[in-house]
Design a protein that fits this description.
The complex is a heterodimer.
Chain A: H1 3-9, E1 14-19, H2 28-35, E2 43-46, H3 58-67, E3 72-77, H4 83-95, E4 100-104, H5 125-137, E5 153-158, H6 166-177, E6 182-187, H7 191-201, E7 207-213, H8 218-227, H9 235-243, H10 247-262, E8 268-272, H11 280-287
Parallel strand pairs in A: 1-2, 1-8, 2-3, 3-4, 4-5, 5-6, 6-7, 7-8
Helix pairs in contact in A: 4-5, 8-9, 9-10, 10-11
Chain B: E1 2-6, H1 9-15, E2 21-27, H2 30-33, H3 39-51, E3 55-62, H4 68-75, H5 79-83, E4 87-90, H6 94-103, E5 108-110, E6 112-122, E7 125-128, H7 146-149, H8 179-189, H9 194-197
Parallel strand pairs in B: 2-3, 2-4, 4-5
Antiparallel strand pairs in B: 1-6, 6-7
Helix pairs in contact in B: 4-6
The chains are: A alpha/beta, B alpha/beta.
Chain lengths: ~290, ~220
């Protein structure tokens, strides 16, 4: 089950989607949504207590997705675990058959439903990438020998529309230096901005997978612009959604159009449907991929 | 300076439940600046306690109650009143309160919450810029602490939560600048952007074990 690794090694346009584990133990819906993606995507990201809201863990959910015959990208944040727990969870992931890790710093607990929690951040995304590559070489981060090593494919994130962009680009370079093999970006709505970012990215031997976030309404687009860092839905798109009688349908068209445009710009797309994973096959179909 | 804030009065009263005779200890240094434990604030608290039916046996505002020997010496003249008290209510920081518990065998009650090591930007405006982490890193940022000024204490640049130069936890009521944007601007201005590019290793938290201590060797 190495579909992501295989895709990264070829010039294939990479398709990834996202699955958010439920808040609770009922995984039926998650499994149903994921099963619809089988054969249509190269990998499925599994979010880790996304937005600092406590849910089913990304390690357990990644294993369930693997059991469904899909290649999971295990998202691992530094918010909830110190360096012992992180390394230990990575070893657990490896023995369970998980092969891809997306290294994230994680949202602050203030964003979520347990604001009283102690934020950990013992290490952060750049250091986490180094740690994963250290485990891949057969030692822990203190140089102690492992009995059996890992061989994870390591990914990271970047925000092509961050404002200001310069510190973000410097951090991107650090992530490359720390061993990231692929990047999944924050949602991009302005392909010109993506082209701009690719000028920096193309200096490095890494794959760039652009984020596509399915817009469901003009209201949602405005909410994203107001509250989600690094996301800028253009006024043209907001107008298009506003005028539409079937905004979700229009959102699907927009996503499909964007995928088509991005084909010649970057190495793949990462589709975030947030609760509408069942629409991913339709988006892909309409994009003509 | 150690920044303190008075606890809600009801919380103070609750901690004094069943105790009638109260002696107060304040601080004329940090807690005075914070208007929590100087003479003025301590006297104000005494009046409020009296209105609630408490018998205040006396008070002492000490110059640096964090200094155990000073606390011991300054409380000596008040021994008689302290002995008659059910508990000691301290309007100084947590260090001051524990100097008191080290030298007086009476229950100690905190009247304030100790918040942080703060810079005084102007009278009554306190900001945290140092977390006393045990191993100062501001050489690589040309003088801005990422451990403290970044909500996540990141060492290698801004996270994806940065928005127009503001931190992910920034709100209209409580604006917070992104420390890494500030660091970027400073390094750029001082022509040191190359420092940004070096990957900083994970911090060594064993440099600051709790409870920490420092004992200077005597100079011969």
């Amino acid at each position: 089950m190495n579909t992501l690794k295989n895709a990264l090694e070829t010039s294939k346009f990479i398709i990834t989607a996202e699955s958010g584990p439920p808040k609770g133990t009922d995984v039926n819906e998650m499994i149903h949504c994921v099963s619809l993606l089988k054969g249509k995507v190269d990998a499925v990201n599994v979010t880790d207590n996304q937005s600092s809201v406590m849910r089913l863990g990304s390690l357990g959910a990644s294993k369930l997705i693997l059991d469904q015959g899909l290649d999971p990208i295990y998202q691992l944040t530094c918010r909830d675990r110190n360096r012992l727990a992180i390394q230990s969870d990575l070893l657990s992931a490896w023995v369970l058959g998980i092969r891809n890790v997306l290294a994230l710093t994680g949202d602050h607990p203030q964003a979520g439903d347990h604001k009283q929690a102690k934020p950990v951040f013992d290490i952060e995304s750049v250091q986490l990438l180094q740690v994963i590559n250290t485990l891949n070489r057969g030692t822990d981060m203190n140089g102690n020998q492992l009995k059996g090593k890992t061989a994870f494919v390591t990914g990271a994130t970047v925000t092509p529309e961050a404002d200001p962009i310069e510190p973000q680009l410097l951090k991107f370079e650090k992530k490359v230096k720390a061993g990231a093999q692929f990047f999944q970006t924050q949602a991009v709505y302005d392909t010109k901005k993506m082209e701009e970012f690719m000028k920096t990215a193309r200096q490095f031997q890494v794959k760039i997978i652009a984020g596509i976030l399915l817009l469901k309404s003009a209201k949602m687009a405005r909410f994203l612009n107001k509250f989600v860092p690094g996301i800028r839905v253009t006024e043209d798109l907001i107008n298009e959604l506003e005028k539409s009688e079937k905004p979700l349908e229009t959102g699907i068209q927009i996503a499909a159009r964007q995928i088509n445009e991005l084909r010649s710009i970057c190495d793949g797309v990462h589709i975030m449907a947030i609760g509408m994973e069942d629409k991913v096959p339709m988006i892909l179909e309409r994009s003509g991929i | 300076m150690i920044i303190t804030k008075q606890k809600p009065f009801q919380e103070i009263l609750k901690s004094l439940e069943g105790e009638t005779n109260i002696f107060l200890v304040g601080c004329s240094v940090c807690a005075d600046e914070c208007q929590t434990g100087g003479e003025c604030a301590t006297k104000e608290l005494i009046e409020t306690l009296k209105a609630e039916g408490k018998n205040v046996t006396g008070f002492a505002v000490i110059n640096s109650p964090c200094h155990v020997l000073v606390t011991k010496k300054d409380l000596k003249p008040h021994r008689e009143f302290i002995d008659k008290s059910d508990s000691i209510l301290v309007t100084a920081c947590g260090a001051g309160a524990q100097s008191v518990s080290e030298v007086i065998e009476k229950p100690v009650r905190p009247a304030v919450d100790t918040l942080f090591l703060g810079n005084v930007e102007r009278h009554g405006h306190f900001y945290e810029h140092c977390s006393m982490c045990g191993e100062c890193v501001i050489a690589f940022t040309d003088g801005i602490c990422p451990i403290t000024n970044c909500a996540k204490g990141l060492l290698n640049g801004p996270c994806g939560g940065m928005n127009k130069g503001k931190c992910e936890i920034s709100t209209e009521d409580r604006p917070v600048d992104c420390a890494w944007v500030l660091i970027y601007e400073r390094l750029k201005k001082l022509n040191h952007l190359d420092k940004f590019k070096n990957i900083q290793p994970a911090k060594n938290y064993s440099k600051h074990l709790k409870p920490d201590r420092l004992i200077l060797e005597r100079k011969k």
